[in-house]
Amino acid sequence: MQPNAGTAHAPVPQTSFERNAHALLEELRQRNARRVLLQAPEGLRTSVIALASLLGQSGISTVISCDATYGACDLADKEAQAMQCDLLVHIGHSKFYRDFGTAVPVLYFPWNMRASLDGADFSSIHEEHIGIVTTVQHTDLLSEVRDLLVKAGKKPFFAGNILGCYTLPAQKIESNVDAFLFVGSGKFHPLGMRGKPVYTFDLETKAVEKLDTALFEKRRFAAIYKAKDAKTFGIIVSTKEGQRELLGAAERVRQQLEEKDKKAYVLIMDEVTSAKLEGLKVDAFVNTACPRIMDDHFAKPLINAEDIEYL
Ligand code: SF4
User: Fold this and answer.
1) Is 199 buried (19+), middle (13-18) or exposed (0-12) by CB count in 10 A?
2) What is the pTM of this model?
3) What per-residue confidence (pLDDT) applies to 7?
């Protein structure tokens, strides 16, 4: 790519915000974007006003989405269309593994996060062969994490980026490793991992902890056990394009439940919360949307569609 003559004397971006914001601005200039909708996950929300200001100074008009977004499964493309934006800038995630059409073109902008690894202590990991998994925002840190693991006497392997609903990169190297290390923040992403012990390395606190995957399995089977007695089910379908019937087709689920002498009703909603399901006279729910929904608290048993074989 030719250097941009217009930015030859611009100050060199220093902070993480400046690096990402200027890279995004450059990308938008190349696309001749005039008006964009900015959509960012909660962790990046504090940066969007400064980002909109920077883009505005360069002649790019912005609209900011204030609804929650948990992944690239959940795009504000219809809002972008309604607000006459020519592009949706979806920050913090890469393109979803499942294809679906969008109302306006989408630019997926990962927003690479730098973090100091000073103070990282991997001594609580007893296994030797370690598969490293992360999210798209932290891929730049993986070489440093690998070097630290080598110093700690481990044999690390790169697996790749995972999502709370997508762990294929980890599954591909599972037979070569004794445990996995998730580099990032929170437990949402590694919760979908099964089979081998999983440690989390929190980049904010630098804490290395073993994830209690057994606890989540116990909760999963407790919900299945309770749902066995249910006579009437609500089948949850999400309006989010990427999550719509992600775990199974609602009509197929209805048929399977009816074959088990259960009554079933298909429910449609955007965000799935216990409050929205209150008052419905059903005994339990089957979720066809994001598999991590079942980690939230629900007043009635809620199981994922892939688990109805256990009923
Ligand atoms: S885990 Fe859920 S919110 Fe995250 S990308 Fe998958 S479907 Fe979307």
Assistant:
1) buried
2) 0.89
3) 45
